[in-house]
Design brief:
seven-stranded mixed beta sheet, Urease, subunit C, domain 1, globular, TIM Barrel, alpha/beta, 2 domains, single chain, 432 residues
Length: 432
């Protein structure tokens, strides 16, 4: 059922208050975790009865368990333990996708408060890291990231884009308004008109401390008046944006359903392609040869079909969803066979936050081994972020981010939607 925005600020405030009351548990108190089974995503093995030692929020060692005297241990001996999961396509700020006018009904402050609640739901779902690929109001995601990093809000580690770069009336714009109506300035910061404008606005975003840049290379399913198969930004505009990002050592991703827009983005130097619903073999070969990741949200087409039908979403949106859902899944299957790099991404914010792991069974259904699906949300997502030294595996030196589940996700990957415990930075997260 579609979640509405009524009362969301109150809910977010309660989430923040609950976090403040939980701060009596410190990282140094969670020094040892006993894992009944531990999935080693680096070696693709499963270890039994392991002891994970943590100091200052990072893993010191992983070794067979031996009894210790007078040491507090988090007992996960009845669980399977694996690295905290990562979602590379989220939209935490604001509420989930609604009507055309919804982004104009709330202030940036209200959107960030809603994001605080969404962040906690995401963390409690076992996702200790996210890449947030744009909010309607520029830089509200930066504010949420900073609040989490300060400890004011409990949520996953965030890499944020600050907004989107799009053409006027494009897939990242507010469309469908009356001819004489105008969207607020903070919703148009990423609208570009030519390569030089693109370069200047990329520089502005980078100076506002974003972690990556996002370009809207083609039309979008959920943006009225745009065609997912058609290119939007020119290749010259994309090259200008990527060029500025590289100066700052930042990565760039491109929303691209259509093959031609994706090829333009790959030639421009992006690090990942989002969605990829209509990619052809040439686009996939280009991505493989250049090491460009595919981040394909192959779950939420079913969600859009079910909820959009029940709530009478625009027929244009529903038709575009029908035109891209099955083709996207076949592109995903082909990408797996071809060996294209794949990182886990779900487009959370289209569906309710906290359901991020529902995509895992789809990835297995469309060609991935369960271990590789888990790696897409751990090792491979860390590689896409450039955070390999800090996240993505349970090994010495990395952050002590981990989750516990009952049963074996390598046999039934759907159990990742039923997380029993979450630890971030060595501190146990309280979710109930």
């Amino acid at each position: 059922m579609m979640v509405r925005k009524i009362g969301r600020g109150v809910a977010a405030f309660c989430a923040i208050a609950a976090f403040a009351s939980s701060m009596t548990v410190h990282a140094e108190e969670a020094a040892f975790i006993r894992a009944g089974r531990l999935i080693d995503v680096e070696k693709e093995t499963v270890l039994t009865d392991q002891l994970i030692e943590v100091r200052d929020g990072r893993i010191v060692s992983v070794k067979p368990f031996a009894p210790m005297q007078d040491v507090a241990i988090i007992d996960w001996s009845h669980y399977t333990v694996l690295p905290g999961l990562a979602d590379m396509h989220t939209h935490l700020v604001g509420d989930i996708q609604g009507g055309i006018i919804d982004p104009l009904l709330y202030t940036g402050a209200e959107d960030v408060l809603a994001g605080a609640g969404n962040a906690k739901k995401t963390l409690c779902a076992g996702f200790t890291t996210v890449r947030d690929v744009g909010s309607w109001r520029a830089f509200t995601d930066v504010a949420l990231r900073d609040a989490i990093n300060r400890g004011d809000v409990e949520g996953p580690r965030m890499a944020v884009a600050g907004g989107y770069f799009t053409i006027p009336g494009g897939g990242g714009a507010i469309t469908g308004l009356a001819y004489d109506a105008k969207a607020p300035e903070d919703m148009t910061r990423g609208v570009v008109r030519g390569p030089e404008d693109a370069r200047q606005k990329a520089r502005e975003f980078l100076q506002h401390r974003v972690d990556l840049l996002k370009m809207i290379a083609t039309g979008a399913v959920l943006t009225v008046g745009t065609d997912p198969g058609l290119p939007e930004l020119s290749e010259e505009e994309m090259r200008a944006i990527v060029g500025e990002a590289k100066k700052y050592g930042k990565k760039v991703t491109a929303h691209a359903h259509g093959a031609e827009g994706a090829k333009m983005a790959v030639r421009a130097g992006v690090d990942s392609i989002e969605h990829g619903s209509l990619l052809d073999d040439e686009a996939l070969r280009m991505m493989k040869s250049r090491g460009v990741f595919l981040v394909a949200d192959i779950y939420n087409g079913d969600y859009i079909n079910e909820v959009g039908t029940a709530e009478d979403w625009p027929e244009e949106t529903m038709q575009k969803n029908r035109d891209t859902t099955d083709t996207q899944r076949e592109v995903f299957r082909k990408a797996v066979r071809m060996g294209v790099k794949i990182a886990y991404g779900t487009d959370s914010g289209v569906y309710p936050h906290g359901d991020n792991a529902k995509q895992m069974p789809y990835m297995v259904r469309y060609g991935m081994r369960p271990m590789r699906a888990i790696q897409s949300a751990t090792l491979h997502s860390a590689a896409l972020l450039g955070w390999e030294k800090d996240t993505g595996a349970l090994s010495a030196g990395r952050y002590a981010d981990m989750i516990a589940v009952e049963g074996d996700p390598l046999e039934d990957i759907s159990i990742l939607s039923h997380v029993k415990g979450v630890i971030k930075g060595g501190r146990e997260v309280h979710c109930k």
